[in-house]
Amino acid sequence: MRFGVIGTGRITRRLVADMQSTDNVEVTAIGSRSLDRAKWCADQYGVASAVEGYQSLLERDDVEAVYISLPPSLHAHWSIAAAAAGKHILCEKPLAISTRQAIEIAEACDRHHVRLLDATAWLHHERTDTFAAWIADGRLGKIGHISAAVSFYQPFQSNDHRLDLELGGGCILDLGWYTCGLARFVTGRNPRAVWADAVWRQGVPQRLSAILWFDDDVTATVSCGYDTATRKWFEVAGSTASLICDDFTRPWADRPARCWIHDASGKVESHKFEGSQERRMIARLASDVPLGAYLTQALDTQRILEAIDHSLESKQRVELG
Ligand SMILES: NC(=O)c1ccc[n+]([C@@H]2O[C@H](COP(=O)([O-])OP(=O)(O)OC[C@H]3O[C@@H](n4cnc5c(N)ncnc54)[C@H](OP(=O)(O)O)[C@@H]3O)[C@@H](O)[C@H]2O)c1
Q1: What pLDDT score does 159 carry?
Q2: With a threshold of 0.85, does the pTM exceed it?
Q3: Which end of the chain is less congested by CB atoms within 10 angstroms, N or C?
Q4: Which domains does the chain possess?
Q5: By alpha-carbon position, which residue is closest to atom 21 of ligand 1?
Q6: What SS3 string covers the chain?
Q7: Measured from the CB, is residue 281 less than 6 Å from ligand 1?
Q8: Cβ(13) to ligand 1 under 6 A?
């Protein structure tokens, strides 16, 4: 699959390297609003063509799929344009800034027969398959509570899209995507209700705390934000054991992915996993394996985040429809 890249931001460099090192995948062009930046990135990343303007990139015959790494509010417009141009899509998380937009993206991909994946790479790690198997096999007993926290400490530059609500900034879409997505992945469904509170700074939510209530007396607490040191952990607490992971969004640099099962007697089992979640994600998009479960996960996550927004606005517990 020959990819064109839309956007030249921070995450692009890493994903381009992952695409270039995935079997049967090639990066043929990179598009920017500025030709200079496109050329600079193409030189840096070893990509053959630099293109001015995203639409021009979509019109190229040597581009079969696009990787969209723009600020969140632009994901829907460019994903729908890519689908109309017949290009498969790997779109950065969050898929969109609203459930309505996310559904519109999915409908456009369906209409134009192109494949769609949001770039939530942790879902594609082999370790994640093991989590799912342990939970389904009852290894933890009955699941009661899920906790998840994702944060990093960052005094952003004033023009950062994460500080711009219009561009989909703030920690809810950016990092709540991981914590709420984790809760949805573990339970396999959406919560019945949510309640949320946030610390706002510079016009965007900087830190979020939320409670999620699921059927069958399962609860989750999630925390995320930009004002505490890097965290990317979860605990899934069951009636007989807990599953704990401190690097679920991306393994720590130069260390294998890891997790632990703690039982009621204090016995701890450590597990380590190799392999690149990003390459596995890219390879899945480039293959013909069904992707519907990832789309359902993304749409459900989008619904949870929207309910969290409503809870912040209303200062009330919000029921999901
Ligand atoms: N999966 C992950 O681990 C991960 C990690 C970080 C970020 N992300 C996601 O990736 C996306 C991009 O994040 P990033 O941190 O890479 O962003 P970034 O560094 O700000 O780059 C975004 C790029 O979008 C383009 N752009 C187009 N219109 C823009 C506008 N109005 N304002 C700013 N940029 C604009 C720019 O490229 P040109 O000007 O060259 O066209 C810019 O370089 C976000 O959705 C974010 O949540 C994912």
Answers
A1: 85
A2: yes
A3: C
A4: 2-119 (3.40.50.720), 123-319 (3.30.360.10)
A5: 9
A6: CEEEEECCCHHHHHHHHHHHCCCCCEEEEEEECCHHHHHHHHHHHCCCEEEECHHHHHCCCCCCEEEECCCHHHHHHHHHHHHHCCCEEEECCCCCCCHHHHHHHHHHHHHCCCCEEECCHHHHCHHHHHHHHHHHCCCCCCEEEEEEEEECCCCCCCCCHHHCHHHCCCHHHHCHHHHHHHHHHHHCCCCCEEEEEEEEECCEEEEEEEEEECCCCCEEEEEEECCCCCEEEEEEEECCEEEEECCCCCCCCCCCEEEEEEECCCCEEEEEECCCHHHHHHHHHHCCCCCHHHHHHHHHHHHHHHHHHHHHHHCCCEECC
A7: no
A8: no
- Hey, whose CA ends up nearest to atom 7 of ligand 1? 11
Of 39, 93, 142, 267, which one is the catalytic site residue? 93
Ligand 1 pocket test: pick from 40, 58, 79, 92 the residue with the most ligand atoms within 8 Å of its Cβ. 92
Q: Which pLDDT tens digit goes with each residue over 223-279?
A: 999 999 999 999 999 999 999 999 999 999 999 999 999 999 999 999 999 999 999
For the question of residue 93 being annotated catalytic, the response is yes
Q: What is the pLDDT of residues 18-68, one digit of tens each?
A: 999 999 999 999 999 999 999 999 999 999 999 999 999 999 999 999 999
